[in-house]
Amino acid sequence: MYVLMAVVFVIGYLCIAFEHPLKIDKAAAAILTAVLTWTVLVLGADTILPLLQPGSHDPGDSSAVVIESLRHHLGEIAEILFFLLGAMTIVELIDSHEGFKVITDRIQTRKRVHLLWIIGLLTFFLSAALDNLTTTIVMVSLLRKLIRGRPERWLYVGIVVIAANAGGAWSPIGDVTTTMLWIGGQITASGVITGLFLPSLVCLLVPLIILSFRLHGEAPRPRARAHLAEKIPPTTTLFERNLVLTLGIGALLFVPIFKTVTHLPPYMGILFGLGVLWVTTEFIHRNKHADHKHPLSVVGVLRKVDTPSVLFFLGILLAVAALATAGHLTQVATLLRESFGHIYPINYAIGLLSAVVDNVPLVAGAMKMYPLISDKMLAAAAVDETGWLSQFVIDGNFWEMLAFCAGTGGSTLIIGSAAGVAAMGMEKISFTWYVRRVSLLAFLGYTGGAATYIGMLALR
User: What count of other Cβ atoms lies within 10 Å of the Cβ of residue 385?
Assistant: First the structure.
């Protein structure tokens, strides 16, 4: 049964990785994988659990232990899912009010190099406040209004993918994996911002500097279509757009403050912000016709939220939790330590692996493989001559570097991150084109950022 669990997980993982050739949504594969792994675990509990802690469980009590473990893990996973659901709803609400136009309409330059730096830096900081997936969708939509022709636009879209992943890595709300570590207690908001801002910025600056020597002239602008714009009246006023944008970004940025002041989990802060926005939008649209009001309300926006992604996270996190309960991840952690011997190559390898394998289960697995060490546990440890245990305290070097590597390593392949997959679908970018034109730039940026983080540790 122990081996069968691993086989079921690997098969499910392959179905997720080959989602497009199989034409099966990865959420469906993840959900089935989660249910099957826990089913195998509970059926084989009498043989698996005694191997972990001999003599600690009665044979007849093993199923109850598994079910109790399932409830414990589901509680932790629910915190992540409610946070993501609230954040995605807020972002969709801003987008439905055309709030992002306040930012995008200010870009006027046509010079390729200037446009490259504006797009790169805007994406970098925007993804820290929103998330890398949403930022990519917004920026690709913006590029369609700024640059004519897909071949011309694709290189900028590649930079958007790199910048979105880099920007999300240093913010507790900018990337799913960083959010998972933040909610799990491995990192703090202030710790990840101060520790990863510079490495993440270097990860973007390296590709920008290289491309600045290759791009020249002006980018072709799309042809004006003023006559079409006149036929479509604006659905929101300037005041409504600015108000919703301000409240939405404010709600996202308020979450770390709310957690620090109240000590409540982050999902409570995001739900508070969503509640404020919900009441506000209901009030400002109260006198509008139902057909105009519905698309601008939270009820209408919830239909646009990417629910399959939420179910995918639920499935894959539950499947990883099953492997953690059965002891598979402890074995993998021991193997990695024996093979690499240090946190730097372990994290660097995880980052590169995330270009092929989804980074959510990788980080979830690492969180289960390596336990969070409290100050009391560190003080109680008899011997820590190598300093291994001290890497796993809150804001420890392992967790910070894991957030960076898992967040940015996926940029080396277009299928390695949610941002890349979204860009690939929106712009029909081929896998081979991205490998030829962008992958090396992303790899150099990723390596430069990792080296920067290691250099910062050496100077402390």
Answer: 5
